[in-house]
Amino acid sequence: MSVIGHGVEIVTSSTRPTSPFDGMQIYETDTKKVLVYNGSAWVEVSDLDSTDGVPTTAQTKLDNIGLVHLATNTFSSAASTEFADKFTSNYPNYLIQYDLIASASAPSIRGRYLGTGSTQRTTNNYFSVGTKRDWNGTESSLVISGGDNSFIGEVGNGRGSGQVWLWSPELNRSGAQYSIFWGHNNTVLQAGWVGTQYNVPQQHNGFHLYVTSGTITGEAYLFGFGA
Predict the structure, then answer these.
(1) Cα(71)–Cα(220) distance, rounded to whole angstroms?
(2) Which pTM value belongs to this model?
(3) Which of 110, 168, 223, 225 has a beta carbon 3.0–4.6 Å from 95's, enabling a disulfide?
(4) What span, in angstroms and rounded, lies between the C-alpha atoms of 80 and 99?
(5) By C-alpha distance, which of 113, 62, 61, 57 is closest to 87?
(6) Is 105 a member of any domain?
(7) CA nearest 174: which of 113, 227, 116, 222?
């Protein structure tokens, strides 16, 4: 047995110290693991959870660094897709990324927050503002005041993709969204952005994504971040 660095002992899994002290660290050459003694057992340095004497919240923060994939929805010839009861206190913010094909000639993509289960927030509290630009260089503004949904993007009779960023939907405050999209309005390609606020403080549990006419086929992914 040898010692390197700041008191890290080089051992094997069969030659661990017989009288370890709380906080003692070892490196096992046969398992390639770094372990620390927590006062009663040897645990891996990367395995920090409540069973090791480290609060679960500490492990949650380690696990939730960056975007964390929470769910995938795959749908075919559907009027909508939704992530019900997915917003929790584990993540303050969320991202929905979608890629879909619409059957109708010129629908737009819309969204609504969800309450418990699949209860849609349909009251006229969505205020959206944004801009879109088409392939020919024509730019137009978008303003929806007090609608019963948020404008997400265009899809047309073809492919559409984009992202919806949701800030603090699970907290009891006015929900903020930011959407970027690429799609088709049946005559020309379009791209744009839209910012939306749900103007009444409300705790939301999920999100409903749909098209104004026809059906959609594709995938949508939900991520949590910012823990």
Answers:
(1) 8
(2) 0.72
(3) 223
(4) 13
(5) 113
(6) yes
(7) 113
